[in-house]
Amino acid sequence: MLNTINRAELVALLIALKHCRPGVTESRATDWKCSVQKIGIHLRSPSSTVDDCHRPLLEAIGHELMQRAQAGDETILLKVKSHMGIHGNEMADELANEAADECCMGRHFDYDLSNDYTQSLRDKYWLQQTIQVQTAEGPAETRACISDLDDSLRKALHDKHKLGQSNQKSLYFQLWDKVQPFRVKPHSDALWTMPSIPESHKRNIFKHRTGQTWNENMAFQRHVPYMPGQSIAMDTCCPLCRGDDSQGHIFGSCMHPDMSKQYIARHDKAMRTVIQAFTKGQCGSHCLIADVGKIAGLKDIGVHSKRVPAFVLPGRLLQARGLDPTVGRGFLQRGAADTRSKMRPDMMIVEMTMAEQQQYLRHDDSSGSNLTALTPLMPDGNPRSIKIVEGGYCPDTRYEEKL
Q1: In this prediction, what percent of the chain has a pLDDT beyond 90?
Q2: pTM of the predicted model, to two decimals?
Q3: Domains of the chain: which residue ranges?
Q4: Domain 5-118, CATH homologous superfamily name and number
Q5: Which of 93, 95, 121, 325 makes the best surface tag, with the fewest CB within 10 Å?
């Protein structure tokens, strides 16, 4: 059972209900509105609290109220305002604070009233932090419980984890915190210490990761010009394609031809970096087919061709699509060639033997004619393995959408 303020209030109400006198109308008051609401919801619709972490307590309270109701005794639960000078409420607060202090010092012992009233709560006390206090002998350190698991816990963690005054409730903070377990150290954060990356680029990357890339929408919300010398932004439309402007729109969905060209260039450059990494590994000596730029520039990084070998798209597959690759000339032959030319992955790795590697040398021919002799089987009769790599742009924190 979680140690929360809700739990403490519900336990107090349960104990108070256990001390109700039979045959008498009893009233119990609390200044915690959430507890009264939870009890009401559970009594009206028990199925709605199935996943509530405090359900055992709610069931115990409901059982006490039901027993009194069946005996003809009336029970009234009241919500009173806190810190308004109500004598009983102020006394309850003082006693609760004293009990909490004794609990932190290890002098208090109680029982979990939600689990057959026998489970000890020892060693399940509230989180503590070290604080500075002023004593007669001078400053001293002592331990004190944090008041809640939200702002107080965040404040206690600032000094140790150097979070500064960051807004940890923002969407971007939560998204980056979610992907932290999947970081590949030290590569995921290597760019921040790379001397080859200018500081201006790093600032732009940081703005992008925190949703601060300047756009027409932000200018409109702040009632300022989008660019120096312009008038105040009057709408949220992209200045190029007139679509709804945003950070995501700038980096991936603008329909302007110039932006489309930049998206393609970004994709090809990223994939060429991936290809260079592959050529340094175990697959580097195999046949590399890639459609990420002109073949004249690709041959320098180890690419054989831009075209898929014929055996990867055999005639029977093309025939199934209504195309006949055996026709010498005419529409069907052109259609088959077009189909093969369009079905080109970003990167394809075709397994080759050492002898084949010497035979099929890398050269400028983008048609792939030097690969026509390749077959689905290796010289030893085993199937030839083919690996396909596709690249795509997506936000760092939402890569599942692309997958």
Answers
A1: 12
A2: 0.53
A3: 5-118, 128-165, 180-260, 261-308+344-389
A4: Ribonuclease H-like superfamily/Ribonuclease H (3.30.420.10)
A5: 95
